[in-house]
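User:
Hi there, any thoughts?
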Amino acid sequence: MAVPQGYGTGLSFQRPQCDLGSAVRIGSGRLRVLPASVADMRVGLTGGIGSGKSTVAAGLVKRGGLLVDADAIARQVVEPTGRAFGPLVDRFGGAVVGQDGTLDRNTLAKIVFNDKSALADLNRITHPAIRELMEEQVGGAEKTARDIVILDIPLLDLEGKARLSLVSVVVVDVPTETAISRLVAHRGFDEADAWARARAQMSREERLSLADFVVDNSRGRDDLESEIERVWSALVEIASR
């Protein structure tokens, strides 16, 4: 579902990548012993639609990162029992409720991606609930693991970076045309819909202006793994200072 400025975008209308139970998780693979100060190290991870951000997040978790997933939190707050569900139905009407009683994300996506006012209302409704749950997840993560905490946020701005006390921001970058081609070829997106979603986000240049580290995902998987390892090694070095 769409997430407020500083937290995410409408990307989470896509097929869920994890459930609430995995919104905070500790990487199962190679764990590194880090100093106690790492418990307070928050790293933002962001990227545009089709950038491969989720793949990079998984790679960081594999290396020992602890993930807080903004998309998973955004999905929770719009479940029928979530605090944002009722206000969304009040604002957008019964058409956004599916036959099973849950939010019809596809219908809502079509509304907000073509109406800036509607998108602003969606953000206004969901913003407080997402912020509260994200802080709970981050706080819980920092209390249970001395790890680098990765905040996976589809859209991140300077305000969000400051609000969440991020030490560094990692941007997964790919040319927009390449991202659109991948969405159409590998995820079944309609090309017009993919472009509409991309244009609803901040520009590639704006994202890159926030970056402390850039992961180039314009090439193959082996190159991406090298990029992830490079960034992870740099984060570990920062955390160890």
